[in-house]
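HOLO CASE FILE
Compound: fe (ii) ion
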Amino acid sequence: MAKDIKSVDYGLEKIFKGAKDFLPLLGTDYVEFYVGNAKQAAHFYKTAFGFQSYAYKGLETGSKDVVSYVLTQDKIKLVLTTPLNSSSQINEHLVKHGDGVKVIALWVDDAQNAWEETTKRGAKSYFEPRTEKDADGEVVRAGVHTYGDTVHVFVERKNYNGIFLPGFKAWESDYNPQSLGLKYVDHMVGNVGWGEMNDWVKWYEDVMGFENFLSFDDSQIHTEYSALMSKVMSNGNGRIKFPINEPAEGKKKSQIEEYLDFYEGPGCQHIAVATDDIISTVRGMRERGVEFLTTPPDTYYMAAPKRLAEHDHKLKEDLETLKSLGIMIDADDEGYLLQIFTRPVEDRPTLFFEIIQRMGAKGFGAGNFKALFESIEREQELRGTL
Ligand code: FE2
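Model generated. C-alpha cells follow.
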C-alpha cells in the first residue's frame, strides 16, 4: 500500500540496523551514455549544463573501436561513448534506443564481492570482475544487468590515482565554460513495462539489498488524461535512490508508455542532479539554451506559500523569481524542495534531466506531479503521442 507522503518516515537506518548491508555502496561513480556523436554531445553538456572536460579515450590513446569523453561537475561524472566502426555492438543499442543511458556505475570498496553477492542472488552478469591497470594503479570493475538493456557496473578504485580509469588520459580543452553548480546525482529513475514495476522492486530488494521506502499509485499520480505508478528504491545508506515507474491506464497515453514506445523498451527516464542554488543554476542553463518544460500556471504559484505553511515552512527564495524561471516547489514535514525538469535532451522523447535543490525535504516532489504531468501532456499533444 502506498504510504502517505506527509507521514513518510525515512527510517532507513532503522530498517537496515541489525541486518548487514551485503552491498555497501559509496555513491554513484559515473553514468555512461551511448550516443551517436560523443564529440558533439560533450560540447552540449559543457556549454549547456556547465560540465568540465575531464578524461578522454579514442584513437589517440589506442582505443580503436570506441571513443569516450568524460565530463565532470563536482561529484558527477558523465561518460559519452560512441562506436568508431559498424562492427561495435554499441551500434545495436543506438539503433534500438537512440542516445540513452547504458551504465549506471556504482562506487564500491570491493567490486569482486559486489558482483558475487548480486549474482548469487540472481543478478545476470554483464561482465565478470576484471582488473584494469596502468602506471597509476588499478581499478576493478564488474557488471550486472538491470531493466531493459541498462546495466550496473561496480567500480572499485581505492588502488587507483590516475584520471578516471586506466586507458583514459586527461582531457585538456581550450573551451571551458563555467560550471553551473551541479553537485551530485540525487536519484535516477527507471521506466519499466506494464505490470513490471513490482518485479523490479523485488529485484532491487532481493538482488541489491535495497528498500522500497516510498510508493505512489495511480490514484496519486494522475491527471485528467493519464497515470503512472512509482516506487522509490534506496540502498542502505540512502546515497543511491532509484524510483521505478510503470505506466497505468488512463483516458490517453501515459508519458511512461510514450517513453517505452520511443526507447523501444525499459530504460533510464531521468537523472536528477542536485544544486545548492537552483536559481543561479537554472538561470545559467536557460541562458545557455537548455529547454525546460513549460512553467506551471499562475494559480500554481499563488497556492505555493499555503502549501509550505501547511508544513510550517517558509520559502527562503523569492517566489516571483522562482516563477519567472519555472521552478516548482514541494514540501513535506522535514522541509521543502525546489525542482525543474528539462525537455528530453535528444530527439526521441526519452531521457531528460531534473534539477533539484533540497531544503530539508527528502521526497521527490509528489505535490508537483500533477502540474508536471500536465506540462508533459501539453508537449505530448504537440508530438501527437498523447
Ligand atoms: Fe525525479
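CASE NOTES: The chain has two domains: 8-18+181-383, 27-170. Residues 187, 189, 270, 272, 354, 364 surround fe (ii) ion (CB under 6 Å).
CLOSED: yes
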